Amino acid sequence: MAREATPLWEAVRSLWEAGRYFEAHEVLEGAWREAQGEEKRFLQGLILLAAALHQGKLGRGGMRNLKKAEGKLLGLPSPFLGLDWRPLWQEARRRLGA
After folding, report:
1. How far is residue 73 CA from its own chain's centroid?
2. Other C-beta atoms within 10 Å of 87: how many?
3. In which residue ranges of the chain is pLDDT below 50?
């Protein structure tokens, strides 16, 4: 997940790998509140991916949030801020049947 481990990415990775997408969303939201510019856009994209996967896990679809996440993430390099986000996006697409 992360090229260079940071406490944020380590926490998010642990939650993501455990399928605890709502909790990953909450961790990312704290960082998002402090971010600006492209970093804020990037974090919002990850939050939307986590929300999409959480909704999918509950049987509520998740495609709308997946599309919103794509709008935030596509166009950013991967890795971005030390996180290789493309595998997360691809996983979300696969799990949601996109």
Report:
1. 9
2. 11
3. 1-4
